[in-house]
Amino acid sequence: MSRGLLICFEGIDGSGKSTQARRFADWARARGREVVRTREPTDGPWGKKIREARFTARMSAQDELAAFIADRKEHVATLITPAIQRGAVVVIDRYYYSTAAYQGARGLDPKELLRVNREFAPKPDVVVLVDVEPKVALERISARGEGTDLFETLEALTRVRATFLELAKEPHFVRVDGALAPDAVFEAVLAAISARVQV
Ligand code: TYD
Questions:
Q1: Residue 86: helix, strand or coil by DSSP?
Q2: Looking at the predicted structure, is the pLDDT value of residue 91 above 80?
């Protein structure tokens, strides 16, 4: 049986990470692997509460952190860990690096946020940072016509990106240039993942 893998995609809103996560998941599935594609915030009760608050009254930084942690604990216990244990490739769109970057941008200490998460959440085999300038990301978001939410100001995304780039110095991280065309980004994603793990 193949070894279970946890492959994580991170990036600011509008970076194109979800497209890349989906493409990678399809690729791994086509190779015959069981793939579990998932995301945070999840579609469970905590994730729903978080999504609702984004467009209405934003929670305090502490309440928001507690909600993301509760969401992740449930996600890890019910989906991520069992899937890795049975040998699946788990492809996750956002994970605890988003907590470090986004809740860090609200004034919490990114290092402490990582520490708290690592006490219960398995470490990914590879983290792909799809990196774009906040200006480009915001242009894409407005082109989607979805409207921006309370997480998506230029100033906030600039701080979030800075933390992601700092985190990307860790060896299991790879940064790909999300300003390229989607096919070129995917080529870089595949090359980076294949250089680190056997899928
Ligand atoms: P996003 O992937 O943009 O969800 P959607 O597909 O619904 O747009 O994630 C929602 C937001 O949540 C995003 O702005 C980043 C933020 N976030 C945090 O602040 N902390 C976290 O731990 C996670 C996972 C996400």
A1: coil
A2: yes
| Closest residue CA from atom 25 of ligand 1 | 98
Q: What CATH number has the domain bearing residue 147? A: 3.40.50.300
pTM: 0.95
Q: Is residue 56 part of a domain?
A: yes
For residue 40, tell me if it sits in a domain.
yes
Contacts for 95 with CB less than 8 Å, ≥ 6 apart: 8, 10, 40, 72, 121, 124, 127
Residue 177 has pLDDT above 60, yes or no: yes
Pocket of ligand 1 (CB under 6 A): 13, 40-41, 51, 68, 93-94, 98-99, 102-103, 151
Overall domain count for the chain: 1
